[in-house]
Amino acid sequence: MSPAATALTVIIAIVAIGTMVGFLSGSRERMDLEQWTVGGRGFGTVLVFLLMAGEIYTTFAFLGVSGWAYSRGGPVLYVLAYLSLAYAASFFFLPQLWEAGRKHRMQTQPDFFNARYGDRYLAGFVCIVGILAFIPYLQLQLDGVGIIVSVASFGHFGRVPAMAVATCLVIAFVFANGIRAVAWVSVVKDFLMIVAAVAIGVGIPLAHFGGIGAMFAALAHARPQHLVMPGATTDLGHSWYISTVLLTALGFYMWPHTFSAAFTAKSADTLRRNAIVMPLYTLTLALVFFAGFATVLILPHVQNGDLALLTVVRHTFPAWFLGVIGGAGALTAMVPAAILILTAATLFAKNLYRPIFAPAMSDDGVARLARAMVVVLGGTSLALAIHGSSTLVSLLLTGYAMVTQCFPGVVLGLYWQRASAAGVFTGMLAGVLTAVLLMSMHLDPLFGLNAGFIALCVNFTVALAASLAIPARTSAAARHFT
Amino acid sequence: MKTPSIGALALGIVPFVAMCFTVALWDRVQPLVLGLPFNLFWLILWILLTPCCLWGAYRLDSTADRNSSHDG
C-alpha cells in the first residue's frame, strides 16, 4: 500500500469508528467541560487532566497555532496568554451571569439581553452577531478537514471534495440528533489528540535536533527575530499583541455556545472554581508551539503555514501515524462544527425569526426552520471555505472581532444599572459596523491595533455615552435584574 | 448577588499585567530558560501562576462572606 493510501485508510477508519461510537452510544447525558472537571470524579485525576487537555486541542490550536508559529513566529504567543486570561476574566463575571440566569430562567445569550434590557430587537441583533461570528469559525473547521485530507493523501485527494464530504457528515450528525452522542466521540478524539500532541511536540524536536532545548538554541541562533514580535510580519507588534489578547480574552465566553454553557453549571461557585483550574489545561498547548517552531528549520519552504504541522509529521513519522493524527484532527474539526451549526440554526429559528417575524409559529415549525438553517449554514461555510484563503488563526480572529461586540452589553448589564437598551444597541451597532468596515477595507491591524479591539472601544464608548444621554425607560426592571 | 471585592479584582488584574500589558518587557529570546526562549518561558510560568492569583481572589471573597451559603 502506498503511504497515501495507508494514511487515508487510517483516517477513514478513525472517523468511521468515532462516528459509530457516537451514534451507537446513545448517551442521554451531555458531557460538557464542566462535567469533566466537577462530575468526572469517577474518571480519576490523571485521566480527567488528559481529557481536558485534549479538549483544548481544537482545529485552531492544532493546525492554526502551529501554522502561525511557523509562518508568523512571535505574534502567535497571544494564544498562550489569551486562554488563561479568558478564564481569569470569567472569574469576575460568569458567576454573576449564572445568578442572573437562575433568577430569570435564561438558557441562551439573547435571553440575557431580553431579560436585562427588555428589548426583543436588541436580543435579535445579538443573535445576528452570534451567527455572523460563527460562520468564520465553521469555515475554520471545514478548512481543517480539507488540509488534513490533502496532506495525508500527498495531494492526490483535493481539499474541496474532502470539505464537501465533511460538511455532509456534520449535517448528518446534526440531523441524526447525534449532538448528545457527539460527546462520546469527544472522548475518543480528546484521548487521541493529547497522545498526538505529545508525540509531535516532543518527538519532532527530538528526531531532528536531539531535544526541545537544542531546537530552540538552534532557532535562537539562526532566526532569533522569528521568536519575538513582530516575527515574520511587519505589523503584528506589541500593541497588536495587547489589543488582540484583550479582544479574545474578553470574547471567549461571548460565543453563543460558551455563554449558554455557563447557565448549565451547578452553582456560581462551580464556575469560580473552574476558572481557577482551567488555565492549567492550556499548558500542554506549548507542545504545538514546539512543533511549529521546529518546522521553521526543518522544512523552511512550506507554502501555506497551516499545512506546516502535518507536512512535518509526514516528513518525520510513518504513514500510519500521519493517519492517526489526521483522523484525530478530522474528528476534532467535525465535533465542534456540529455543535456550532446546531447552535447557530437554533438561535436563528428560536431567538431571531420566531420572536420578531412569526410570533405564532409552532414548535414544529421552529424545528423545521432550524433544520433548513443547518443546511443553509453548512452550505455557506463550505462555499466560503472553498473560496477563502485566510489562515486558520485569522478566521478565528475575524469571528472574535464580531462576537466580542456582545461583551459591553453583558458587563454593563451586570454591573451598571444605568446601561440602557438604546445605549447598548447603538454601541453594539457602532462596534459591529466598525469591525466590518475596517476588516473589509483590509485595515486590520490599524495603527498597530487589532481592528476588532478598536471596534470594541468604539462600542464601549458609544454604549456609555448613549446610556447616559438616553436613560432606560425600564429602569425599574434593571434595578430588579440583579 | 455577590460582587467581587477590590482586593479580589486587584488579584485578578495581576495576570493581565504580567501576560498582556508588560509584553514589551519580556518579549525577548535571551536568556533561554529551561531551554525555552524567554517570552515562551514567561508565558508558561504565568499560566502556572494565574490559578494562584485566582485562588487568592477566591479565598479573599469567600472569607468575606463566610456566613453565606457554603458549598465547598
Order of helices and strands of chain B, N to C? HHH
In the CATH hierarchy, what is the superfamily of the domain at 3-99 and 133-238 and 257-389 in chain A? Sodium/glucose cotransporter
Q: Find the CATH topology of the domain at 3-99 and 133-238 and 257-389 in chain A.
A: Sodium/glucose cotransporter
Strand content of chain B: under 5%
By CATH, the architecture of the domain at 3-99 and 133-238 and 257-389 in chain A is named Up-down Bundle
* Strands of chain B, total number: 0
* CATH top level label of the domain at 3-99 and 133-238 and 257-389 in chain A: Mainly Alpha
Task: Report the span from N to C terminus of chain A.
Answer: 65 Å
Structural class of chain B: mainly alpha
Number of distinct helices of chain A: 22
Rg of chain A, rounded, reads 22 Å
- How is the quaternary structure best described? heterodimer
User: What is the share of helical residues of chain A?
Assistant: over 70%
Uncertain segments of chain B: none
Instruction: Tell the overall outline of chain B.
Output: elongated
How many beta strands in the DSSP annotation of chain A? 0
Write down the domain tally of chain B.
1
Helical amount of chain B: 55-70%
Largest sheet of chain B: none
Residue ranges of chain A: pLDDT <50 for 5 or more in a row? 27-43
With helices defined by DSSP (H or I, 4 residues minimum), what is the helix count of chain B? Answer: 3
